[in-house]
Amino acid sequence: MLGREGLSLSKELKDIIVADLVLSFAFTMVLSGGVFGGVPSAAALLPLFVISLVAVTLSFVLHEMMHKFVAQHFGAIAAFRRSDNGLMITLFTSLFGFLVGIPGATVIYSNNFTRKEEGYVSLAGPLTNLVVFAAFLALGLFAARSIQFANGLFSVGSGGFVGDLIGTTMLISLILAFFNMLPIYPLDGSKVLRWSKPVYFAVLAVVLALLFLFFSTSDIVYSLAFMLIFAFAMSLLFRGGGLRL
Fold first, then answer.
1. Is 3 helix (H, G, I), strand (E, B) or coil?
2. Is residue 27 exposed (0-12), middle (13-18) or buried (19+ Cβ within 10 Å)?
3. For a tag site, which of 1, 64, 152, 161 has the least CB within 10 Å?
4. Helix axes 160-180, 217-237, angle to 10 degrees
5. What per-residue string of b and e applies to 71-88 under the rule 16 or more CB within 10 Å gives b?
6. Is residue 12 flagged as an active site residue?
7. pLDDT at 198 over 90
8. Which pLDDT does position 146 carry in this prediction?
């Protein structure tokens, strides 16, 4: 069980802030090409960091918080906990232009979940990502002077900072939704699939359709292949209970 320290709101808030900032910086490094992409100036990094911070906060933090709130609704003890080792891995890999993002997870303790309740808790995170995607798609359609669909790539006609912010948030939201819906323990998809195959395949189909409709096919295929390999490696490392991503 989580002790008093584990239930501390101040500790949870600190863990969330640290994980959010580290993951945002890691995405900044990836977007800038890492150390092999040269050393960008502070003026070039700042807008990338702001974009990453908004995208990560809305995609990652809200994802984790929805796991927590739904779990608590069903009577579980839940709190976000950062992983210091995971944060170091996240930072190290980002320096080379790719990301193994494992900054932490919502830890949930309950012996009373039904299979349906566990499915709801697990599905809450990916569905939150889809809501964030839909909100920023609507924002993009409202803000853009023109919308272009070229080779499956969504671009906002106004371009610049606003376009990059919208597009990056949409992409990160879908990437997180897809990764977490993989049917590999301890990811959310394994619990959703165990609860309801129709729900699982419907949500996964929507996420994949949106990815290939709005973003570059070559980039998506590479990213999805990498996530499959990473998820399989995670399944070999995490065999205990109580973990939600």
1. coil
2. buried
3. 1
4. 40
5. beebebbbbbbbeeebbe
6. no
7. yes
8. 43
- The span from the CA of 17 to the CA of 27, in Å, is 15
d(CA 179, CA 190): 11
* Residue-range definition of the domain harbouring residue 131: 4-244
What total number of domains does the chain contain?
A: 1
Average pLDDT over residues 217-242: 61
Pairing of the two strands 243-244 and 153-156? unpaired
Closest CA to 127 of 55, 199, 56: 199
Active-site annotation holder among 12, 64, 117, 118: 64
3-class SS of residue 103: coil
State how far Cα 123 lies from the chain centre. Answer: 13
Q: What's the predicted TM-score (pTM) here?
A: 0.83
Bridge partners for 147 per DSSP: 156
3-state helix, strand, coil in the chain (%, to 5): 70, 10, 20
pLDDT digits (tens, 9 = 90+) for 60-115: 999 999 999 999 999 999 999 999 998 998 889 888 878 888 888 899 888 788 99
Please tell me the total number of residues recorded for the chain in this structure: 245
Average pLDDT, the chain: 82
Computed on alpha carbons and rounded to an integer, the radius of gyration of the chain in Å comes to 18
Count how many Cα atoms sit within 13 Å of the Cα of residue 134 in the half-sphere of its side chain.
8
pLDDT for 9-55, tens place per residue?
Answer: 889 999 999 999 999 999 998 888 877 766 666 677 888 899 999 99
